[in-house]
Amino acid sequence: MSLAADSLGLPEARVVTAADPAEFAYTVFHDRHPRLFAQVRHALPYGPAQLDALHRLEEETLTGTLQPLDPGAELAAAGDRAEWTEWGAPYFGRGLRWTDVPFLWSESYFYRRLLSATGYFAGPWRGVDPFGPMKADGLAGAAVDRELAAYGALDGMSAAERDSAVLHACVAGNQADLGFQLIAGAPVGVSLIVDDSAAIWAHLNEREPGRVNLVADNAAEELLPDLLLIEHLITTGRATSATVYLKPRPYYVSDAMTQDAVALLRRLVAAPGLAGDAGRRLWGYCTDGRVRFEAPAFFCSPFGFHAFPPEIVAAIGSATLTVFKGDLNYRRLVGDRFWPVTTPFADLTGYLPGPVAALRTCKSEVAVGLTEAAAAALDAGSPDWRFAGRHAVIQFTEVRR
């Protein structure tokens, strides 16, 4: 039983794996990952050693058994090889397929192995982001141009309309996940099936302003509205400062690292109109310390947020609000299990000591916080609503157990 169920008295729920061809997680290994391998092979001029390692990893994930990290493939100084040996002890050497182990664990390990295959930790390709060209294309693409231009519409809005626009833009931006686009194609718009945005603004308006945390998801066009939300909260006096949690290394194709945030900031500062004004204010908030970027190693581990280290738990407990962006962060926040959809969001996040909001486009099987009637209507009208990326939630709780 998960830590969430143990500590909160919740019923048992099956852990998500990629073993069942009828479930979405299976398609990640058998549809998304082969497309990803093709993109990575063509994105950079890798040599025979890297191309061969990528081919062998692809074959292992599709038809082989789960193998430990190859100690000859990277420097011992990579830092986490010993940890992965420990984390994989329940699985390595047991003849298990990748699809037999918890999906959250196997996906995380997949991206760690992919970095090894591309030489990220040793040799001439050390430190080269295999997803960098895809992120750069997103940053330079028309989607960012449209977002920057659309931001100008805030000039004619009331204060309440601006609040709504910047928050809902973050949810729409979650469709920019490059990994998701490997399956779904171009974004098609989202329908909110839970919207606690009024409660979020009431919470912020009724309290003394303090620090907010943002646990970021993807780079480029998704990170843009996230950073603009942070700027809006500080500029309107809802927050005194902000900590933005990023990934310390490439992860899940488009997950944002510090260099991705900096690249986006540079583009935002150079934008015309209101977006550029907001970008320059945000740059100033970074340089005066009101906005800080953090990239703890934990965020590239294979665990849910029940296993947060004490310093992150303390940062959540002392914040006015912690916002979790995206589907992966949602799975890690509530637990990657087939919870009954009526399980209260507050129950599954009650292990954290501060107010929590989740802004998430639904791209996986996990779904909670709905009524039975709402779930039944979705099942009848859109059977793939859990993972097709056309539905989204804004969920919030300040109730601590």
Automatic annotation (TrEMBL):
GO molecular function term, any single one: phosphatase activity
Keywords: Hydrolase, Manganese, Metal-binding
UniProt superkingdom: Bacteria
Name by which UniProt lists this protein: Protein-glutamate O-methyltransferase family protein
Domain Damage-control phosphatase ARMT1-like metal-binding, residue spans: 29-373
Top-level taxonomy: Bacteria, Bacillati, Actinomycetota, Actinomycetes, Catenulisporales
InterPro entries linked: ARMT-1-like_metal-bd_sf, ARMT1, ARMT1-like_metal-bd
Record has Manganese as a keyword: yes
Reactions this protein catalyses: beta-D-fructose 1-phosphate + H2O = D-fructose + phosphate; beta-D-fructose 6-phosphate = dihydroxyacetone + D-glyceraldehyde 3-phosphate
Cofactor(s) listed in the protein's UniProt record: Mn(2+)
GO BP annotation list: DNA damage response
Organism: Actinospica acidithermotolerans
One Pfam assignment: ARMT1-like_dom
Family affiliation: Belongs to the damage-control phosphatase family. Sugar phosphate phosphatase III subfamily.
